[in-house]
Specification:
The chain is of the alpha+beta class. The chain has two helices and four strands. It has a four-stranded antiparallel sheet with strand order 1-4-3-2, with helices on one face.
Length: 100
């Protein structure tokens, strides 16, 4: 028997090519609240950096990076979250967050 669980989510569209404090401020401006906002911002920046390194190690031409999508899970003690990152021409974008 399959288990289903409802997820709530939010489209964000936050650029990750700025400081962590600016990312947190952008998330708060979009209505996210609580201490998990700092965790989400830090995780999104770290995942974008990891994915950039992975693309470089695989020798993927940078012109091919736009359109790359990454879905990663943040394990926060109160709010487990899935982050959807998307590479656009300007850099990484925290496109959406889904909350378990």
């Amino acid at each position: 028997m399959a288990m289903t669980r409802a997820l709530s989510g939010r489209e964000l569209g936050v650029q990750l090519n700025s400081t962590a404090a600016e990312v947190v401020a952008s998330l708060r401006a979009q209505g996210l609240a609580g201490d998990h906002v700092d965790t989400i911002a830090a995780a999104a920046i770290a995942y974008a950096t990891e994915e950039t390194t992975r693309l470089q190690q695989r020798l993927v031409p940078e012109t091919s990076w736009p359109g790359t999508v990454v879905c990663r899970r943040v394990h926060h003690q109160y709010v487990p979250t899935w982050l959807l990152l998307k590479r656009i021409d300007e850099g990484w974008l925290l496109d959406a967050a889904l909350f378990d």
